[in-house]
Structure formats: structure tokens, C-alpha cells
Amino acid sequence: MLLMKDHAFEDITITAIVKRAEVSRTAYYRNYHSKEDILQSTMKEIVDKIIAAMNFHLPIRNSYEYWLALFQTLEQHMEYLQIIPKLTWQILFSTNYKPHS
Question: In total, how many domains does the chain have?
Fold first, then answer.
């Protein structure tokens, strides 16, 4: 996903992804079927971490700690979160993207 800081989504190849991740193509395809799969997986992981941080503070006894946990979790993933607006438009207008049903 960090490749999107410098490259358009449609220009990123699986070769570039595996090279950046320092894994083999076999390892990549063992876990993902497409570029979209890795993006969905990464975003799900981030959302799951945010939800876990919020659930840890339920029921809310101290709103300061609740909001602090949220913002700290967002800050930990800021590099990825800054790419989302760019990513969203690129995927929406990509002719190769087919959402999972």
C-alpha cells in the first residue's frame, strides 16, 4: 500500500509489491489473489485495530482515555490512512477492479 505514495494503483505490479515486501511471488499468491486483496486485507487489519482499541475502553468510564486511544491508534497508521483518499478514487475508476460479493 505504501507504493501508492509514489505510484498510481493501476501502475503498481505484483513484481513491485513482492520486491518491496521482500517475499516471493509464491508466498504472495498463497495469501492474496490480486492487488485489491492485499489492500482489503491491510485496511481490514487497520480497522480491526481501531475497533479493538475502542472496545478495550468500553464501557466508557473516561472519555479522555477513549478518545486518546482512538487518536493514538489512528496516528500509528497515519501513513496508510493518508493514502486512502487517493486509493479510493483510483480503485473506483480502475477498469480492473471487481468488488467482492
Answer: 1
DSSP states of 11-67? G--HHHHHHHHT--HHHHHHH-SSHHHHHHHHHHHHHHHHHHHHHHT-S-S-HHHHH
Q: Is residue 100 part of a domain?
A: no
- At 40-61, the pLDDT tens digits run 888 888 888 888 888 887 787 8
Question: Residue 43: inside a domain, yes or no?
Answer: yes
Indicate the DSSP class of residue 8.
Answer: -
Residue written as cell 468500553?
58
Closest to 21 in 3D by CA, of 47, 46, 42, 45:
42
471487481: which residue's cell?
98
The pTM score is 0.62
